[in-house]
């Protein structure tokens, strides 16, 4: 009898422990309270006390700290229009956000893992996130890179309108764009080798496939075949004249 109930408690705990579940359970109150304390100390200066992106630090940044209450996120492993996963948010908090437009949000890797998960709970509470999106599957990378095809796809999908022919972020539309906050925004430079969330081929694929919601960067899911999108990924990576330069920067 006793054995059975211990087993039951054990499985219930296991089921609760994984953050991978598609549907969220409410955060444990003590975890949320810890997160709120940390949020006030570490995040409110930029994101505002109520998460509306209007903290006193906001005016010093070229991109507005996210209004977390809108529930719209740029950096997701999930399709456009869906919530990110809890893991996506955890990585944003851990790594911060830099990219070609410069440092926008610092990394909080110095906080303990539990503290960072507590902050995820705060973000998802602000965003009314009662579920998480389903991550896309990136197909396996072909062995050879077809750069010629990649450039053709880049032309056909009109990436250059915003990112420029050589990817410097200087296409004609880059001069006039605004984000959903009606703040001025420029197309990312794809030639600096700096990306908002990583520069592995899979991360680059994920970024343009899912889009950066809330910015003018559309999602290109289904806009070309897998082979074409892989060629496009390789082409983007080849634009990094910076590929060698950025290695030197790191010393
Ligand atoms: C120095 C200011 C600053 C601080 C401090 C800061 N952020 Fe941010 N954060 C930003 C900016 C700016 C953006 C938007 C960047 C962009 O649009 O690329 C952002 C974006 C985000 C996003 C949205 C990411 C996405 O995919 O759209 C989340 C979530 C977030 N911050 C959470 C936090 C949390 C939690 C903390 C505290 C641990 C924090 N931020 C601290 C400036 C800050
Ligand atoms: C309408 C203008 C527009 C078009 C067309 C466009 N982009 Fe973008 N792209 C942007 C903007 C603006 C950003 C930066 C968004 C931000 O910082 O929030 C961006 C960001 C990106 C990023 C992420 C950079 C980073 O820091 O991680 C990649 C990769 C990218 N674009 C690739 C492409 C590719 C490939 C195409 C064509 C298939 C394309 N873009 C078409 C406007 C555009």
Quick recap:
This protein is an all-alpha fold.
What does this structure look like?
With 251 residues, the protein is mainly α. It has ten helices and no strands. The chain has two domains: 24-126, Orthogonal Bundle (Cytochrome Bc1 Complex, Chain D, domain 2), CATH 1.10.760.10; 147-250, Cytochrome Bc1 Complex, Chain D, domain 2. The chain starts with a helix and ends with a helix. Helices cover 41% and strands 0% of the residues. The protein has helices at 2-17, 29-42, 44-47, 86-95, 113-126, 147-156, 160-163, 201-210, 226-238, 242-250. Residues 1-21 and 243-251 have low confidence and may be disordered.
Could you give the topology of this structure?
Elements lengths: L1 H16 L11 H14 L1 H4 L38 H10 L17 H14 L20 H10 L3 H4 L37 H10 L15 H13 L3 H9 L1
Bound molecules: heme C (2 copies).
One heme C binds next to helix 3, helix 4 and helix 5.
Helical content stands at: 40-55%
Specify the CATH architecture of the largest domain.
Answer: Orthogonal Bundle
Unreliable runs, pLDDT <50, ≥5 residues? Answer: 1-21, 243-251
Question: Which ligands occur here?
Answer: heme C
User: Got a strand count?
Assistant: 0
The fraction of residues assigned to DSSP E strands is: under 5%
- How far the N terminus sits from the C terminus, by CA atoms, comes to 63 Å
How does the overall form come out from the CA principal axes? globular
Structural class assignment: mainly alpha
Q: Specify the CATH class of the largest domain.
A: Mainly Alpha
Number of domains: 2
Write down the CATH topology of the largest domain. Cytochrome Bc1 Complex, Chain D, domain 2
Radius of gyration: 20 Å
Question: What value does the average pLDDT take?
Answer: 88
CATH superfamily of the largest domain: Cytochrome c-like domain
- Helix count equals 10
User: How would you spell out the order of helices and strands?
Assistant: HHHHHHHHHH
Sheet bearing the most strands, described? Answer: none
């Amino acid at each position: 009898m006793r054995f059975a109930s211990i087993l039951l408690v054990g499985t219930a705990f296991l089921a609760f422990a994984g953050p991978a579940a598609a549907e969220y359970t409410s955060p444990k109150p003590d975890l949320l309270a810890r997160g709120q304390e940390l949020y006030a100390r570490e995040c409110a200066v930029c994101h505002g006390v109520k998460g509306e992106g209007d903290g006193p630090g906001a005016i010093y940044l070229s991109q507005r700290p996210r209004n977390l209450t809108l529930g719209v996120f740029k950096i997701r492993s999930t399709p456009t229009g869906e919530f990110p996963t809890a893991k996506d948010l955890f990585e944003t908090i851990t790594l911060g956000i830099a990219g070609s437009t410069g440092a926008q949000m610092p990394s909080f890797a110095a906080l303990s893992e539990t503290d960072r998960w507590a902050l995820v709970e705060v973000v998802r509470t602000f965003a009314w996130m009662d579920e998480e999106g389903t991550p896309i599957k990136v197909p396996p990378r072909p062995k050879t890179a077809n750069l010629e095809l990649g450039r053709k796809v880049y032309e056909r999908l009109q990436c250059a309108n915003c990112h420029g022919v050589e990817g410097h972020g200087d296409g004609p539309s880059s001069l006039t764009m605004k984000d959903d906050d009606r703040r001025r925004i420029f197309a990312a430079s794809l030639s600096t080798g700096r990306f908002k969330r990583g520069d592995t081929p899979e991360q680059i694929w994920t970024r343009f496939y899912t889009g950066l919601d809330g910015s003018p960067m559309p999602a290109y899911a289904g806009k070309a075949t897998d082979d074409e999108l892989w060629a496009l990924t390789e082409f983007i990576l080849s634009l990094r004249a910076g590929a060698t330069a950025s290695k030197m920067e790191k010393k």
